[in-house]
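Feature request, filed as a ticket because there's no other form

It would be nice if the structure record came with a short human-readable summary line next to the tokens. Right now we just get the raw output. Example of a typical job, pasted below so the devs can see what we mean:
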Amino acid sequence: MAVNYPTIELKKGKEKSVLAKHPWIFSGAIAKEPKGLKEGEIVQVTDSNANYLATGHFHKATISVRCIDFDNNPIDQQFWNNKIQAAYNFRNVLGLVNNSETTLYRLIHGEGDGCPGLVIDVYGKTAIIQVYTKGMYDAITFINNALVAVFNDNLNAIYSKSAETLAKHGVQNIIDEYTYRSDDFHEEKYALENDIKFIVNYIEGQKTGFFIDQRNNRSLVQHYAKGKSVLNTFCYTGGFSLYSIKGGANKVVSVDSSKKAMEGVAANMELNFPKANHEGITEDVMTYLKKSDEQFDLIILDPPAYAKHLSQVKNAMVGYRNLNTEGLKKIKKGGILFTFSCSQAVDTELFRKIIFQSALQANRNVRILHQLSQPEDHPISIYHPESEYLKGFVLYVD
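Raw output as currently delivered:
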């Protein structure tokens, strides 16, 4: 059943990307919009001949509409139930639902699941909602109800964590209003990833508490770690470090500038491998790389995003190049370097060029063993290539 929402009309010829189901509509494509539209309001989008194109959330920004539907459906509780159910079914096909060895996964990955501005991660029987747009925040009651309907008794708690992502709108993190069985919600508990226990601090941790997107890449580190000395930089709470120990590394050094993160590494090590040969160093990574004389068989470089916007790409290139140059200098002959960029504005081709420049500067012969991306529960929509944000290379260094 079609529903009439306030209508935004596009300029002639600007409907092509929407017909191709790209979910973003930029302000420059808009010919007419109603006066007084509120931030996050649901709108319909038409072409210059008043033909329906999509329904989405309106925002007073460069991306003016983020489309959530292309079939003129009413955006009601059933709509959101269908969205969450489809995402759940997909993760079930992937083998992530009711998996005894891996109890954490991403349920909703923004545009990859047709939900721009929404992330939902599942840790055991707790779902963490994080929204990035006012429109998606306004739908949070629908989303919460949909989670309850789809998961039934397989969730104990739902927590909305969006105070940082929507700070300009005065949004607060919500425990009680959108949480059921809230007595089962804890600030800290552990979840399993490939039978490794990770303490997840939902409230104080980065993002939703853990970086789920490196799961497959952590497994690859485990594959290469046997008998090696390993350096894990920007280690956060030690994901790559724990997989290295599990893979048989003879020594692991974890480096991060955050004291809180390093406390997390120590706790996770104690929980899984209390007798491991592990050293945690709280220090700026570049400072450590430049002053340390130690060489390693395997190094992981997984920095935070250096460029969140196109305007920051030039500076990001310098940062990535300097980091990888220093990393390559610390690799033993015949060693392996895992290097990543999670900057959406830095695509794979550009990142590869940066690694090329770093190899020249470090005067090392480098071969690419693997090209890496995000895991399958962080899907990339064929209609939205921008949803591919994580890229990485595994390098063999002579």
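Something like this underneath would help us a lot:
Residues 129 and 206 are 13 Å apart (CA to CA).
The chain has three domains: 7-69, 77-193, 211-397.
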